[in-house]
Fold this sequence. Notes:
By secondary structure, this protein is α+β, with helices and mostly antiparallel strands. The chain folds into 2 domains: about 5-55, Winged helix-like DNA-binding domain superfamily/Winged helix DNA-binding domain (Arc Repressor Mutant, subunit A, Orthogonal Bundle), CATH 1.10.10; about 60-145, Alpha-Beta Plaits (2-Layer Sandwich), CATH 3.30.70. Helix content is about 40%, strand content about 20%. The protein has 6 helices and 6 strands. The strands form 2 sheets. It has a 4-stranded antiparallel sheet, covered by helices on one side. The chain has a two-stranded antiparallel ribbon with strand order 1-6. Helix 1 crosses helix 2 and helix 2 crosses helix 3 (about 35-50). The model has no long low-confidence stretch (mean pLDDT about 90).
Amino acid sequence: MEKIDIDTTDIQLLDALQEDSSLSNQALAALVHVSPPTCLRRVRRLRDAGLIECEIAVLSPDRLAALLGHGLTALVEITLDRQDTDSLEAFEVRVVQDDAVQQCYRVSPGPDFVLVVHVADMPQYLALAQHLFTNDANVRNVKAFFSIKRAKFQPRLLLGAPAGQRISLNKGKI
């Protein structure tokens, strides 16, 4: 594995991009007090290292509701009969391919997986449950919780390192 070194400037760049990835390179450079060419080079290096997976727009479900309807968000706990590596990976590969599955976590203890699912309505959830869970002979238990209000959604990692400290990471699965 290739070793990746990041410093406090890199941490500041990552933090600023988490806050607003639409910042221009010039604005980002000014924010972290580096030149625009240095900023661009560093951000490219962070992307190439896999520290920045992607840049997306986070949509407002409440504002879109007037146009598209609220939809239905469910947090779903899944317990499998067999928890061997192949069974866990096979289930994971299958569910992450479905567009309705927004997030998938393998967890312990308790259920084997927790999914965040978003569908248009209850009939669509039932079709999804049939397709992903009921038809899978290895699924032992499904427990769904339906969201009535999203109080907070912030896909942000807390970053921080003591001033002047370099952090070394092994490139690969981070």
